[in-house]
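[job 0412] stage=fold_complex status=start
inputs:
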Amino acid sequence: MGNHSDGSPNHSGTVATAGQNEVEKFQDPGIPPHRLRLADTDPKAAKRAERQVALLFGISVVGTLIFLVAYFAIDLGDDSSIATIRLQNALLGVGTAFAMLGIGTGIVHWAKALMPDHEVSEERHAIRYEEDRQAAVRIVDDIVEETGIKRRPLIRNTLLGAVALAPLPAVAIFGDLGPRPDDKLAHTMWAPQDGKRKRLTRDPDGTPIKASDVTIGSAFHVIPEGLNELEEGKLNEKAKSVVLLMRLDPASLNPSKGREEWGYNGIVAYSKICTHVGCPVALYEQQTHHLLCPCHQSTFDLTQECKVIFGPASRPLPQLPIAVDDEGYLVATSDFHEPVGPSYWERDEHERNINS
Amino acid sequence: MKALSQKRRHPLAAIALLLMGLLVTGGLYAVATTVNQAKASTTTFSASDTEEGGKLFAANCATCHGMGASGSKDGPSLVGVGAAAVDFQVGTGRMPMQMNGPQAMKKPVQFNDEQTHQLAAYVASLGPGPAIPAEDLTNGGGDAAAGGELFRTNCAMCHNAAAAGGALTRGKFAPALADVSGKHIYEAMATGPQNMPVFNDANITPEGKKDIITFLKQIETTGSPGGADLGSLGPVAEGLFVWVAGLGVIIAFTIWLTSRTS
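[job 0412] stage=fold_complex status=done
writing structure:
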């Protein structure tokens, strides 16, 4: 191909190969020449850097003193004003910051300006495959030999036993994360107790609500009767059973078949726990009848039985069936007809059990 | 006494007794009702207020709310919204509305106090509704701790735990409550303006509303004990501060650590 002159830039194969070989022989540039710092050449600069480092350490000392003075000199009592608390907080923070930063920046400045900064290169040793491997095997063999584990089965067996038993405390500890909730998530305090229907009561004081109290446009934050009297597990029960009670024009509600009797004259009650990840959905817009979850903007339409009209939630908010008792107070006729709140592993099974 | 007992069979005695009884009953009733009214409202409207208000209404509000405030397709009926609703909407400049939008915005008030009073008188005359609250319910002095609990239960989800306001759907928002007068806070709770739910006296008692106002005024004046509150907006403002200031400091230190000293 050597004699053809066709305009191709690469008309000589030998030249090209030679060029590539040259590129592969990369020259080690070595360490760049050492550049001296001001402090290395000028004793005055060194002295100045020394003073700067000392100053930074001094700042740290002052910071610590500020912290101690703020902690002991500012006496906080029950009648301390917010301004005093703020002052102490600020001084404790500033003191700690200067105490730590002074030491840190001082050490770094010391190392950078005054300590030797000669570049050092460490050669990597050549890799020796077989020899290294055999040396490692020998070391392991030596260890096994020296421990005498083969000759002393008593030690070996007790060690095995000890190691096998050691994880048991962890099992016990993690076991205490249980017991499994079983179907606790599927039931709330709203279920009638001994045939007595639970009244809807105001959060937080627990006073019962009359149907006539709930005027159009109202929103009540509701907890079940008896929640405040619970001795234990009050917060867990509250987290499942909180309800938002609203009244709107009965004509704007469109109850589906079988749910016509779940409200009372336009008063409806829905679980406040978002079906997405369980935030409290309580941002009620009384004219658009939208309920907004503040965490991820899931929006539920009250006029369509809290159907999701925007956002990541995948199910409508569960409705609490309500009625009015002899004295005119609102009561829950039953528990929710599905587990409230976000999805969990056994949720579908629990929902089937509730409705079967 | 003797003279009185002698005259008890006088023909006019029965009439005198009847008159006396009527006077006492009527007087007691009058005292009792004024006490009740004084608690509900100290504002009274004269007939001329109502008349002037009617004229103002016809000139400024009837375009949307209809003649006689019976409502039109552009604005709701105002029969039965009460004087409190007018005092809130007009007194904060939300009404008359400047333009249609997701919600009526607070703006410089369009009517002076007297005109607002007259408009309130007119709307109050159309049907019973929440009255303008008495001053002792709106100028604090309640239980701030109880008010805080009520606020966190009923208000904080929209208005933010520190009353800094928050977003709602489709351009609507719950406004910040700093610098809102106690009277307007009370009226907003009682009437539920725009998309805010109504918190009537059966839901939050007048005392409870007073406590809430006390709480709001307290957090407004005492400030945040932890230093700069960055607008009390929560993770957004705080996160932005940490990303910009915190990471900025870390980057600056990294550059300094790896740079050569001269």
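[job 0412] summary: Chain A touches chain B through 43 residues (CB under 8 Å).
[job 0412] exit 0
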